[in-house]
Structures are given as structure tokens and as C-alpha cells.
Amino acid sequence: MAKIRVSSEYSEAEDKSIRLGLFLIACGILSLFILGFCWLSPTLHSLQSKPANCTVVSVLRPEEMFECVFTCGLDCRGTSLYPCLQIFVNNSESNSVALLHFDEQQLVLNPKCSYVPPCERDNQKNRDSVMWWEEYFNKEVNSQSFTCFFNQQRRPDDVLWRRSHDAGVLLHCVLWPTVSLLLGTLIVLLTVCARSLAARAEALQKRKCSYEVCRDLSAAAPAASPSERGAVAKAAGSEAPADADAEPEAASPLFDVPVRRRDREH
Fold this sequence. Notes:
- The chain has a 5-stranded mixed barrel. A two-stranded antiparallel sheet has the order 2-3.
- Mean pLDDT is 75; it is low at 1-6 and 238-266.
- By secondary structure, the protein is of the alpha+beta class.
- Helix 1 runs antiparallel to helix 4 (167-220).
- Helix content is 54%, strand content 19%.
């Protein structure tokens, strides 16, 4: 029996599905590296700070002014000034006085001040923003206890009022790249498995059809027995001599030669 060949080439839709799966896998791996470098590492450092209870000890505003950069268009940039606000609090974890900062970004931006206002072109607006927070901590917070965050290993002399990154950022940094990676892998596996099952079904169908065709051909042409073959041959041989003997009797009278007798001549 001839060997049954099954087409193993992918259709256009299957090819597109595999490309989509590979694209999602590549996006998942790339986004995992990018988000891990840009967000995951700062988030892990932020989560290392422990919550503590802080109370305001003093609110100071030194005469020193700091510069900030503002933007007023695509190609327009400038610098303006803002006053420095220093809020010292008592940290319950270390039982010592530390400088309060609003979050990690402002701590990196200006470690000497507690608050860095949004940079405005007008110096007076920057000053008003700092003055508002100074009044808030003097009157509203004052000696009340509030939650702050303290990291003994990295910043023993600083505390944070709030975290820039929380567990939600960590969840998103890991969740979405993982979902993209798993979804792409699932699409590729399902496409390959579907093609494999289709190839097996096609092979079984061809094998079944070839078996039915052979069975129909054998049923349409029954085999003759040896005795029947001999009788047919014998009948054919007996007919041939009879025809040969009959041929002289059917000779034409044109070939008859008249017989002469000598006695009649004499």
C-alpha cells in the first residue's frame, strides 16, 4: 500500500495566531525588564521602610533659597526660587529627631528641605505654596501623632510622610508582563496542538477512504475458479475445427474444371 501523505503546513489563520503569540511573549519579556528596571527596584526600596508614629517637634523656615526649573513651552525653560521648609519630627522607631520629607522623590530632589513646591515661573507663587504647608503643620498637625515611614539602613536621619510606590505598583509591574507572557504561550500551544490533531484526523480519514475503495474494487470483480476457466478454453478450441471443415463445402463453383473423356474423342 502506498504511504499516505498528510499536509503539515500551517494555514494563514494558524500562521497569524502563532505570530500573535510570539509577539505577546516578546512584549511580556521586554515589559518585564523595562518595568523591573524603572519601577520594580524603587518600589522594593520603598517597601523596605517601616511604618512608625511621628510627632512634630519644630517647623523651621531658613533664609536659604533654592532653585527649581520650570517649563513654559517646548523650547522655553527657566529657573525660579523657593524658600526651604524644614519639619522635624520625633520618630517612635528610633526615638530620635528626624527631618520629615513628603516622599522619596522629594527626598532625592532636595534632601535638605521637607517640601519642594511645583516649580512656578513666579517666585511669589512658590513662596505661597511653602507658606501654606508651614501653616498647616503649625496649626493643624502641631503635636498630633501621624503615621510616617522610616528606613534605618538607608536614611536614619530622614522619615517619609508617604510612600511614592506601594504594593499596587509592585503588583502591576509583575502582573501585566506575566499575563502577556502566559497568554502568548497559550496561543502558540493551542495553535500547534490544533494543527497536530487536524493532521491526525486527516491521516485517519485518508486511510479509511483508501480501505473502502479497495474493498469496493474487490467486490466488483469476483475471481473465476480453475474449472470454469478450463471449460471456457475447451469450448473455444472445439469451435475452431468445425469451422475449418465447413470451409471446403462452401467452395465456389467457379473453380470446377470440366472432365474430358478420351473415349468420346475417339
